[in-house]
């Protein structure tokens, strides 16, 4: 087991918690499973931090944590927390320990949920796919952009093969496992993708048939008209002018509609009440989840099949039109034919199988839809990464969250995961959303160590949670060829916006009746009134916040200026014929809202432009 003593110290475990049936006794095993799913450097970093804490305990007491009395263990942790250079170790270790502890404390046993049969997909594991095949078009990635491009091309009569690095996860499989187990499998790097910078930012992305749409919140905002106008006039992204009807098509495909009140859950209803008392604009979000049962598990695969991720709504249509999907295959490079007049031409792709073998699919058209973090690396591996702006211009929607404590149980994990949008600060580039988490995954803002932290876990059903994301200045960069390296430094203006968002979320929670707000700021974790929150935020900087990020875009931006945009105004990669960009990387700037509809409409526009322009093989 990893860190039995540390887990016991953080959770104030005593002799009564050692029975097999007690939830603290199960946490070390759960923690081991979390660490096993992480990339080796991340797992090694956590284990090294555990070892450092144990070394400190030995130096202070002469014994390891597991051998100490509970009071002695807590004394060691509090001593460690007072040391500025060592205290960050505890912040690092609390995250995986709270994931494991929250799952065992509040998680419900996996009970298969009745779910309708998924629409059929033509999926073939990479091990069973022939070593060499041909197609009219190869689409790399099966998420929002890749699925829409594949459907468009297949309906036009092209033979289409979609290559997906992840596996196909049927809806019925989601109800058989606790959310945390699904989290580590459905996300790239076990959900531990990090953008290095000031501060480091967690940036989770999905890896499965359906891409990140399998694990997003289901929230579907249309691209704001002002954003479309800016993309067209400032960046020369001509396709933006056509996106209005294509957004309509994406909404119809996903069955987007406002979420009914009867399944919002207490988390969303409290948010509506707080906004009403403040006079702020708020409403249930528009989502792609007709018949939602409020299971609060969108981000780990909807167990009822209500959320219309693209593996349920778009890819089945693509397959019905003849598209085929290869799963478990990582595309190593795009094949390019240089022995032709004019610019080089796409000739297909070469991909690695999980068993170490390779497969090739020869095709005159390659659509890159691996996502804004993976597409730049693929292009570099393929010898197509020469544009100076490739991998730059990264936007990520920096986000943070707070929680409010209420006198009566809220049980935020019963209801819609992301339920209500608060648009009072939209003009400032700040979007507030009532966002809960699945059972066991909502413990990140819990303060304290030992008994205090244990008490917070056991009373977590009284917390309502809000999240905020900001329309950021593109200030990130994707490097690397074989392995993606992400750098992102939070712009000063965006850091100020995050603090404004924390203040606004706190005000809303107090207006809804919260007795205190948990800020997520280690040095000032609690505020008992709006005035106290204002006071502590005046002494807080953006680097003190726990920042995560979502929705990466912009790294192979389309535009009219060949010096600024790696792709041309219709999404064609410059310098090569037959390579289209059809994922979030093609968007020239931050979409300012949850981007699934924006990406789907852009991919549809890129594919349509190809078919209406040069056409297949043109």
- Main beta-sheet annotation: 8 strands, antiparallel
Distinct helical segment count: 18
CATH class of the largest domain: Alpha Beta
What spatial form do the alpha-carbon principal axes imply? globular
Number of domains in the coordinates? 3
CATH architecture title of the largest domain: 3-Layer(bba) Sandwich
C-alpha end-to-end distance:
59 Å
What is the average per-residue confidence, as pLDDT, rounded to a whole number? 92
Which class best fits the helix and strand makeup? alpha/beta
- Going by CATH, the homologous superfamily of the largest domain would be FAD/NAD(P)-binding domain
Summarize this entry quickly.
Helix content is 33%, strand content 16%.
Keyword list:
disordered C terminus, 24 strands, single chain, Cholesterol Oxidase, domain 2, FAD/NAD(P)-binding domain
Explain this structure to me?
- The chain is an alpha/beta fold and 618 residues long.
- The protein folds into three domains: 1-106, no CATH class; 123-193 and 203-218 and 221-255 and 303-360 and 367-386 and 556-612, 3-Layer(bba) Sandwich (FAD/NAD(P)-binding domain); 258-287 and 398-470 and 491-546, Cholesterol Oxidase, domain 2.
- Helices cover 33% and strands 16% of the residues.
- Strands 8, 15, 16, 17, 18, 21, 22 and 23 form an eight-stranded antiparallel β-sheet that branches. Strands 1-10-4-3-14-24 form a six-stranded parallel β-sheet, with helices on one face. It has a four-stranded mixed β-sheet with strand order 2-13-12-11.
- A hairpin with a 4-residue loop joins strand 5 (194-196) and strand 6.
- It is globular, with a radius of gyration of 24 Å.
- Mean pLDDT is 92; it is low at 614-618.
């Amino acid at each position: 087991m990893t860190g039995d003593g540390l887990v016991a110290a953080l959770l104030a475990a005593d002799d009564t918690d050692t029975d097999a049936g007690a939830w603290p006794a199960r946490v070390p095993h759960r923690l081991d499973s979390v660490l096993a799913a992480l990339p080796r450097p991340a797992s090694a970093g956590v284990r090294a931090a555990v070892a450092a804490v144990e070394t400190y305990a030995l130096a202070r007491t002469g014994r390891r944590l597991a051998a100490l009395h509970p009071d002695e263990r807590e004394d060691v942790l509090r001593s460690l927390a007072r040391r500025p250079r060592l205290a960050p170790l505890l912040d690092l270790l609390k995250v995986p320990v709270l994931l494991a502890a929250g799952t065992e404390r509040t998680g419900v046993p996996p009970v298969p949920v009745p779910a309708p049969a998924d629409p059929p997909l033509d999926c073939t594991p990479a091990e069973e796919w022939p070593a060499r095949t041909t197609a009219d078009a190869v689409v790399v990635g099966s998420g929002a952009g890749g699925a829409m491009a594949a459907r468009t091309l297949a309906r036009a009569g092209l033979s289409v093969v979609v290559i997906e690095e992840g596996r196909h996860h049927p809806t019925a499989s989601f109800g058989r496992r606790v959310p945390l187990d699904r989290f580590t499998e459905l996300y790239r790097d076990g959900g531990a993708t990090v953008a290095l910078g000031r501060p480091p930012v967690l940036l989770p992305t999905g890896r499965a048939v359906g891409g990140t749409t399998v694990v997003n919140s289901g929230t579907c905002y249309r691209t704001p008209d002002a954003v479309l106008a800016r993309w067209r006039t400032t960046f020369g992204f001509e396709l933006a002018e056509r996106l209005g009807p294509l957004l309509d098509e994406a909404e119809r495909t996903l069955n987007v509609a406002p979420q009914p009140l009867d399944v919002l859950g207490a988390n969303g209803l409290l948010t509506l009440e707080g906004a009403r008392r403040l006079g702020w604009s708020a409403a249930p979000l528009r989502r792609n989840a007709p018949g939602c049962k409020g299971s609060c598990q969108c981000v780990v695969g909807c167990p009822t099949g209500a959320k219309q991720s693209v593996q349920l709504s778009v890819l089945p249509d693509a397959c019905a039109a003849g598209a085929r999907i290869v799963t478990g295959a990582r595309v190593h490079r795009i094949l390019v034919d240089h022995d032709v007049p004019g610019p080089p031409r796409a000739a297909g792709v070469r991909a690695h199988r999980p068993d170490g073998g390779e497969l090739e699919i020869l095709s005159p058209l390659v659509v890159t839809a691996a996502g804004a973090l993976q597409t730049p690396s693929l292009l570099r591996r393929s010898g197509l990464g020469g544009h100076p702006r490739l991998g730059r211009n990264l936007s990520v929607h920096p986000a943070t969250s707070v929680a409010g404590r209420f006198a009566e149980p809220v049980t935020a994990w019963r209801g819609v995961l992301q339920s209500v949008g608060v648009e009072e600060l939209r003009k400032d580039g700040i979007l507030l959303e009532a966002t809960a988490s699945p059972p066991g995954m909502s413990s990140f803002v819990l303060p304290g160590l030992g008994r205090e932290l244990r008490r917070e876990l056991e009373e977590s059903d009284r917390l309502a949670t809000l999240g905020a994301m900001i329309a950021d200045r593109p200030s990130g960069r994707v490097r690397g060829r074989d392995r993606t390296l992400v750098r992102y430094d939070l712009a000063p203006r965006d850091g100020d916006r995050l603090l404004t968002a924390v203040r606004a979320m706190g005000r809303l929670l107090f207006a809804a009746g919260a007795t205190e707000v948990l800020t997520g700021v280690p040095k000032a974790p609690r505020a008992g009134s709006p005035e106290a929150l204002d006071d502590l935020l005046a002494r807080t900087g953006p680097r003190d916040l726990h920042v995560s990020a979502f929705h990466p875009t912009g790294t192979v931006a389309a535009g009219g200026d060949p010096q600024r945009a790696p792709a041309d105004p219709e999404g064609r990669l410059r310098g090569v014929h037959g390579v289209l960009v059809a994922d979030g990387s093609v968007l020239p700037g931050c979409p300012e809202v949850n981007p699934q509809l924006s990406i789907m409409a852009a991919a549809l526009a890129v594919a349509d432009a190809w078919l209406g322009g040069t056409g297949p093989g043109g």
